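Q: What would this chain look like folded?
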Amino acid sequence: MVINKKDNVEVNLTNGHKYALCDIKKGENIIKYGEAIGHATEDIKKGEHVHTHNLKTNLSGKIEYSYTKFTPEKKIKTDKTFKGYLRPNGDVGIRNDIWIVNTVGCVNKISERLSKETGAFSFPHPFGCSQLGDDHKTTQLILKGLVNHPNAGGVLVLGLGCENNNIEEFKKVLGKVDENRVKFLNCQDFDDEISEGIKLINELKEYASNFEREDIPVSKLKVGLKCGGSDALSGITANPLVGRFSDMLISYGGSCVLTEVPEMFGAEHLLMKRCKNEEIFNKTVSLVNNFKDYFTNHNQVVYENPSPGNKAGGITTLEEKSLGCIQKGGQGEIVDVLNYGDTLKENGLSLLNGPGNDIVAITNLTACGVHMVLFTTGRGTPLGAPVPTVKVATNENLATKKSSWIDFDASPVLNGEDLDEKFFDYIIQVASGKETKNEINSYREISIFKDSIVL
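A: My prediction, written as C-alpha cells:
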C-alpha cells in the first residue's frame, strides 16, 4: 500500500485501486497526492473500495485563478554530453534518418513504396486537401515541423500536384530550406514518380552521410513528455521518475515539453504556481480555459477523460489522472507556453497546447522539435513517434509481459530503489544512438489535430 500523510485513501500496489483509510462522509472530498480528486457520493466506511461507484469528480467548467510569484532553484551544470549530429544551421539531431513528408494523404501509398525501396521513413496521414481555415493551417504547421526536424538528415517532401497544400503553397509556409537537405517531388509532374523518388532519396542519403556523431552538450537535448494507457501506479512510479529526469535535464540547461492539456484539468493550479512570470501565468490560464471552451463548444463536459483502461487500472476521476499526469513535468519553473504547431524555443519546461490523444500528442511533440518522447504507460501501447519513443512501464507485470514494447521498468521504485541516475544514463544512451523498441519494431506514426469540416 502507498499512503500520503494528507490522503484519506491508500493505493493497493497489486491492482492500483483505492481503499478508505478512515470513514468518509457523503459529500466529503477524497484526497490523493495531497489534493482532492473528487467527492464521495455516499458514506464510505474505513477499508472500503473507493472508485466509480462512490466517487465523483468536482470538475464542472472554468474557474478563476490568481498569480503568485515562483522562485525557482537554479543549478546549471555543464559536465554532461551525448553523441549527436550537429547541423549546419546550429540545430542538433540524435538520429540521421531520411524522412518522407507527404503534403497530402493521396500520396500515402507512393511514400510507403518509396520507403520499402529505399529505407527512408514515411508517415502517412489523411490530410492536406479539402480542409478549410485553421485545420488547413494546422496541417501545414505540423508538416513544417516535421520537415525542419533535426533528427532527419534529409527530407523528401512528396506532393500530388492538385491538392490545397500543394508544394508551391506549402513552400510559402515552410520558408527557406537547405536544398541539399530538402528535396521536392510532385507526383503528377513525372511519368515514373517511383524512380524519380528513389533518385532524390539517394541524393539525400549521400548528403546525410557527411554527418557523424560528435560530443554535444546535454543542454541541447529536447525531450517530450507523454503518458498513455495510464494506471493508478503512473503517478507513483513512472511519472515521478520522468519528472525527476525533467528536473535533472533542465538543471543541465536542457529542455522538456509537457502537453495533454485536458489531462491538466484539476491539477492546473499546481502548474500555474510555477510560472516564471505573470505573462506565462496568463498564457497558462488561457491554455486551460481555451481547451475547456473547446469541449463545451462541442457540447461536451470537461471531465469525461479517464478511459475504460484507466478505470480498470484504478483511476477514477480526471483530477486523479491529471495529478498523476503533471508529475512528468517535475517541480521546476515553467518558462513558456506553446501553441499547437509552434516550435520549441526556450530552455527549461514548456507547456504545449494539444489534446491527450496519444498519436496526436506524440506528433505534436515531434513537430515542436523534441528529439525523443518519454512515454509512460501502465496498460501498454506499441505506438511510436517519428522520433525515438521511450516506453516507461509503471508496473513489473507490464514490463515483463510486453518486453517487446517497453524500454524501461519504473516499478522497482515501489521497493525503494533509486532509478534516477540509471534512467538519466539510459536516456543519454538513446540520444547517442541506442534504439528504442518503437525503432526496432519500425513503429512510427503521425496524426494531425482536426477541429473543422472536410469538403
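The longest strand covers residues 152-159.
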